[in-house]
From TrEMBL:
Source organism of the structure: Pristionchus entomophagus
Entry-linked PANTHER family: MEDIATOR OF RNA POLYMERASE II TRANSCRIPTION SUBUNIT 22
Protein name: Mediator of RNA polymerase II transcription subunit 22
Stated family: Belongs to the Mediator complex subunit 22 family.
UniProt cross-references to InterPro entries, sorted A to Z: Med22
Amino acid sequence: FQKMQAAKVGGAGMSQQPSKGSASKVLTIQEYKRRLRDNIRSLNDNFVHLITAAKIKQEDEVHKSQNGRMAEHKTTQYEMKVRAALIVRACDELSKLTNDLKEFLILHDFNFLTEAISKAENECEDKLKHQLRKHNDLRIDIAKIVFDVDKELQEHFSLRP
């Protein structure tokens, strides 16, 4: 966590030294990737161990005595509590990581956000122009059909003097 804070502080001086800022971004992103990988691994490992601990093994020698069953039960119970706490901790760390990523994007990637917004606006304008062209084409086609129908009605069904 201290490395990440140092990387964030180092990234603040980007306007003075762009190579230092870029290196800081790379280190920060690597730290985020490591945290993500570690927390996901912790979630998976603890979940697998939790499920494994929940299985009942009846062929063991421990189950033959009442004390052995109680000792195993308590051991399994404590192990499951610890595993569940570790899962909650990993989820909490993932939540903190998400907040750190949001903060990083807000503080460091204004150019990226600006480009993404501009690209989305351009795509929206292109779609709007395309839809307007389709609308106009359909409007013209409908007007032609209505004109033909009116002409046909006048030629065949109008009262002639």
